[in-house]
Structure formats: C-alpha cells, structure tokens
Write a structure and sequence with these properties.
This protein has 337 residues and is an alpha/beta fold. The chain has a domain of 209 residues: NAD(P)-binding Rossmann-like Domain (Rossmann fold, 3-Layer(aba) Sandwich). The protein contains 11 helices and 14 strands. Strands 3-2-1-4-5-6-11 form a 7-stranded parallel sheet, sandwiched between helices. A 3-stranded mixed sheet has the order 12-9-14. A two-stranded parallel ribbon has the order 7-10. Helix 3 packs parallel to helix 5, helix 7 packs parallel to helix 9 and helix 9 packs across helix 11. The longest helix is centred in the first third of the chain and has 22 residues. The chain binds UDP-4-deoxy-4-formamido-beta-L-arabinopyranose (WQD).
Length: 337
C-alpha cells in the first residue's frame, strides 16, 4: 500500500516508516521538521536500502494538506505528527489544540475528498486519565488532566464521529504506553528537542555525560520499591504494532482501539539498574519530590492486540536499554542539525 506517514521524521514515525518499507509498503513521510531533524532521512534511506519520498508540509494548513493528499495516491494515513509535551501543553494550550486537532481535521477532510479509506492514529495511554485501575483496558472511559491529554481524547472522538458519518473510513486508535529503545543499528533513535520530559532519554543523557544526574520523582509510591511503575515497550515492537494494525484494517470496519504495551510494569529504579548494566557504569541519581500529575502505576492489558492483531511486545527491558545506549553513545548530541 502507498501510505502517508505524518511525523515520519520523528522517533516513532521513523522506526515505523522503516518497518512499513521492510513489509513491502510504499511509505511517504510528511513532516514540518518543527520537532525533528532532516538528517534522519538519509539514515533511514541507508537502512531501507532505497530512497524515501519526503514532503515538508504544515498539516494545519488546509490547502497544503489538500494538495498533498490530492495527488498522493494514498491508501492509508498513519498520523504521528503532533505536539506531545505534557508540561508545555499546560503553558501553551492554544498551540496544542490548534496544532493537534487542526492537523487531524485537515487530514480527514482531504482523505474524505479523495477517498483515502484507512487512518491509523497515534494515541496514548494518557487517555485513561489519572484514576484508572491497572491493567488498563480499551473499554475504560477516557479523560485527561492536561491539554496534551485532552487533544488525544478529542482526536479519538473526532475519528469515531468521522467513521460513523463515513462508513468507508476505517480507523485504528493505537494507545501507546511508554515507548523506549532504538533500532539495533544505533543510527536512528529518540532525539527529543530541548530538555527531555521522559525517563529514558534523561537516563541516556546522564549515562553519556550530557546531564549530571537523574532526579527520581518520588520513592514513596505504593509500589514494591516506592518508585513509579510504567509499561515500557521497545519502539521496534511498537512499530510492528502499526504494521499489524494497518493490515487488520483491511477487514475490520469502523473504529478499532488497541493498547500497545507489554502488560508488564517496570519501576524507575529497575530501569536505572537495567541501564547501568547496559552502559557498564553506575548512574548518579537523587530522590526528588513527586512530579505533579504522575500516577503510581500505568500498564496495559494487551490481550486485545494479541488476540486481534497477533501482536505481542516481546523485547525485554535489558534489550530496550542496550539499544538505547548504542544509539545514545553513537550519537551523544542526537541527530546532526
Ligand atoms: C516515567 C516514569 C516518572 C523523569 C509521559 C506522558 C504520556 C506519554 C509518555 C506521550 C514516571 C519517572 C521521569 C525523570 C523520573 N507521552 N521519572 N525522573 O509520565 O509515564 O508518560 O510520557 O504520549 O502522555 O505523560 O512517562 O517518561 O515522563 O515518566 O523519576 O526525570 O519515570 O515519575 O514514574 P509518563 P515519563
């Protein structure tokens, strides 16, 4: 299939583009490079063994998105593009709502006009809100505690309503838990712009000497070692989940929702210890107060994706750390500008 991958120069988008190509699809990247670097493209092409078409478009610009889809000949869109920093979304809610909702709305309008039938959406476990029990199941109600989370809840609703209005539209809502890791080559990986928010890139930057120490946000949670537990999954497993979901949309009508997680929680301390094994040295840490909005535990019930997609996230925490370390140690400052 010819597939438009929005945000395809980003962390999860780049890994998914590679697996789409390896699966025989014709993947086209569209990105505005506001949060990603152009230098990822030649690295992707080297790994793919072929050139990759890249279009630089701001998807909130309706005419440009219309032109992109009109002559694209796409059979599906995988929509990764979006702003995703929880803290930033609290400071800049208007940018978050206009960018995240605007890009989805302009893509859907263009897809309807040109008969593009499949939409795979990059959603997030954040839609379970902060009072969900664990393990999280797809039928749980959705809510949010910050504008970023609300944009995901709202985009899911937009997609459900669009699919009701247009029975030819088939949608996969993929709720990611905590993606980490990097392609085994060590040439592509996570390269957050600015100060990272997430645990793994922060650990990696401490390990490579870009940061002094890791602050552990709270060790008084009701968990075995007192630190927060999350469902970390390898980005390569996550990418494979997208390929499987895309294939499944060939037959599944309407909207399907799948958790993409391992179902196994790992604590901050366990992740730090695993990374120390991967990089071969201890990591300086300091216990700090809890981070507002954090929950003690978040992990998936992945049984629906296993049953309906034949998908399971099998890579281990140690593999996630080894692959992250190879990427970070080979690229201490991330991608070149
Ligand atoms: C993981 C654990 C922290 C940093 C967020 C978003 C969510 C999704 C994934 C996009 C927690 C602890 C972290 C640090 C720490 N993003 N931690 N010190 O909060 O589960 O989810 O990223 O969809 O929407 O909310 O991930 O990596 O920020 O934190 O102790 O310096 O690491 O308290 O327990 P989180 P995270």
């Amino acid at each position: 299939m010819r597939i438009l991958v929005s945000g395809g120069a980003g962390y999860i988008g780049s890994h998914t583009t590679l697996q789409l190509i390896a699966s025989g699809h014709d993947a086209v990247i569209v990105d505005d490079f506001s949060r990603s670097k152009r230098s990822v493209v030649p690295r992707l092409e080297a790994l793919a063994g072929r050139s990759i078409e890249v279009r630089e478009v701001d998807l909130t610009h309706v005419p440009a998105t219309e032109a992109l889809v009109a002559d694209g000949g796409f059979e599906a869109v995988i929509h990764f593009a979006g702003l995703k920093a929880v803290g930033e979304s609290v400071e800049k809610p208007i940018e978050y709502y206009s960018n995240n909702l605007g890009s989805t709305l302009s893509l859907l309008a263009a897809m309807r006009r040109h008969g593009v039938p499949k939409f795979v959406f990059s959603s997030s476990a954040t839609v379970y809100g902060e009072n969900a029990s664990v393990p999280m199941k797809e039928e749980f109600p959705t809510s949010a505690t910050n504008p970023y989370g609300w944009t995901k809840v709202m985009q899911e609703q937009i997609l459900r309503d669009a699919a009701v209005a247009d029975p030819s539209l088939r949608v996969a809502l993929l709720r990611y838990f905590n993606p980490v890791g990097a392609h085994a080559s060590g040439t592509i990986g996570e390269d957050p712009s600015g100060i990272p928010n997430n645990l793994m890139p922060l650990i990696a930057q401490v390990a490579v000497g870009r940061r002094q120490k890791l602050l552990i946000y709270g060790d008084d949670y009701p968990t075995p070692d007192g630190t927060g537990r999350r469902d970390y999954l390898h980005v390569e497993d996550l990418a494979a989940g997208h390929v499987a979901a895309l294939d499944r949309l060939g037959t599944a009508p309407g909207v399907s929702t799948w958790n993409l997680g391992t179902g196994t929680p790992t604590s901050v301390k366990e992740m730090v210890d695993a990374f120390a094994r991967a990089c071969g040295h201890e990591l300086p840490v300091e216990i700090a107060p809890r981070r507002p909005g954090d929950v003690a535990e978040s992990y998936a019930d992945p049984s629906r994706a296993e049953a309906e997609l034949g998908w399971r996230a099998g890579r281990t925490i140690d593999q996630m750390c080894v692959d992250t370390w190879r990427w970070q140690s080979n690229n201490p400052d991330g991608y070149p500008a």
